[in-house]
Amino acid sequence: MQLRIIHRGSELLTLSVEVDTSVLQVKAAIAKALRIPPNDQTLTFKGVYLEDSRSLNDYEIAKLGALELYLPLKYQKIIPVRVAISPEEVYSIPIRSNATVAELRAEIATRVGHQNHNFANAFLVYSHWILEDLRRLNEYEIGDNACITVARVLEPEKQPSNEPYDYCDDFATERLPAPCRRMISVHFLKEDGDPFTLILDPSKPLKIISKIVEEKTGIPEENQTFIISGRDVDKEKTLDSLNITEGDSVYLSDNQVRTIYPTTKRGPMNRNGMVIYFEVGKERFSMFIQGDSTVKDVQQKLQNHPSVKGGKTDLYYKNVRLESRRTLTECGVSNGGVIKVKIHYL
């Protein structure tokens, strides 16, 4: 199940856990992600303090549960900050609101880890400020989800980056327990549908994620193509290997559209008729309809289609319900139009 970690009203991260995962394992995962030692973490659920030795099941924490994280005063507030490396590369990094700019710079280098990026000498820009390494983020009034731009300079030689700060050396190299993994939110964009968001394990390859996408969209795995920065992506690669992080977007192409929903061929046809596409749930089919047909005529014709199976129907065109007494032409429906069918079963 998925577990959200909330701190002072802001969601810092999402973890994948099991019902028998211990509270201490959750703290270890938080330590790995946020670099805060478990001893400094206090977790509560609905006002109840969570003991390290107990499991999540002991507290009846359900799917998509949320834990409140409390920290000592020295940590101030942990805030998610967006860091823009380029228009296509934006990372969400949790960090203390009183952290220095140098600490943020080191954290960027650690999390991004691109060999062709030298963050040691890059300018960090927020609003109209160039951030100074010795100053703290709260001095610039940097808050939740503030966007900081990395402005790099061309140099003949690479300079060594600053050492990343680490408040949790004991957990820096420790492998997290299998039932406790960090999850990320990834947005999927479709050319012919609304975008959607999935919470995914970044260590899984796209061929595994394709199964989740099929359950969400109905697009078969073999017809899915994932596109990043204008290029098709190998489904054997993981989100981590593709540098996909929290809040990033991936374009989803449906290769079955050309075969399932063919466009009407140009050529001689009945000038009084037209081809209309009907959407019933996840299925789409076409029918030849006379141009002077009323909406009621179309509803009666649909009764014989196996996707409708005799149910009472309402028809919608461009999200507007069609009146049964009007003709399709009066409703603005033209050749190649798409009508959505809503079925009411008795």
TrEMBL record:
Domain Ubiquitin-like: residue ranges: 1-71, 79-150, 182-252, 274-346
Positions of transmembrane segments: none
InterPro entries (UniProt xref): Ubiquitin-like_dom, Ubiquitin-like_domsf, Ubiquitin_dom
Gene3D superfamilies, per the entry: Phosphatidylinositol 3-kinase Catalytic Subunit, Chain A, domain 1
One term of GO molecular function: polyubiquitin modification-dependent protein binding
Organism ancestry: Eukaryota, Metazoa, Spiralia, Lophotrochozoa, Platyhelminthes
Annotated SUPFAM superfamilies: Ubiquitin-like
Name this polypeptide is given: UBiQuitin family member ubq 1
Domain of life the protein comes from: Eukaryota
GO cellular component: cytosol; nucleoplasm
Listed GO biological process terms: proteasome-mediated ubiquitin-dependent protein catabolic process
Annotated Pfam families: ubiquitin
